[in-house]
Amino acid sequence: MEKQLRFSDYKSDVIPYLYFLALAAFWFFGDLVEKQNVSFAALAIIVALTVQVVWQNRVVGISLGLFTALISFVAFLATLSEFNDFEVVTQSAIQLLAVGSVLSLCGLALGAVLTITNMRKLAV
């Protein structure tokens, strides 16, 4: 009997890549529409993540996971630093804290998932 492939079997492999691809695509198309400028850094990230999704190299996956978790942690600290620069807590300060924290902590969690998933593959 042939085993059927389902998305639920591979969601821990794919979801982190989809999140980071969506952020890079948002960055790329935001620059393209707003500034009429091609962001080659965002394009390189999209290409690298797409290649990683297709090939699923374990060592590169661990490296990407650690790198994105570290960058996301630094982004969270930067969000807290910017929030502390507000003298009076306003609606925009709360919005900055909420959006920045959600994006950076999701990136941190998905970077950790990416690292752990690829470490398990490497150990087996």
Task: Write a compact overview of the structure shown.
The chain is mainly alpha-helical and 124 residues long.
Describe this structure in words.
- The protein is an all-alpha fold.
- The protein has one domain (about 10-124).
- It is about 80% helix and about 0% strand.
- It contains 4 helices and no strands.
- It has helices spanning about 10-35, 40-55, 60-85, 90-124.
- Helix 1 (about 10-35) packs across helix 4 (about 90-124) and helix 3 packs antiparallel against helix 4 (about 90-124).
- It starts with 10 loop residues before the first helix and ends with a helix.
- The relative contact order is 0.15.
Give helix and strand order, one letter per element, not per position. HHHH
Whole-angstrom Rg: 17 Å
Largest sheet: none
Q: Which structural class best describes the helix and strand composition?
A: mainly alpha
Overall strand count: 0
User: What proportion of the residues form beta strands (DSSP E)?
Assistant: under 5%
Shape: globular
Q: Helix content range of the residues, please?
A: over 70%
Number of domains: 1
Low-confidence stretches: none
> What is the tally of helical segments?
4
Please report the distance between the alpha carbons of the first and last residues.
25 Å
Mean pLDDT: 89
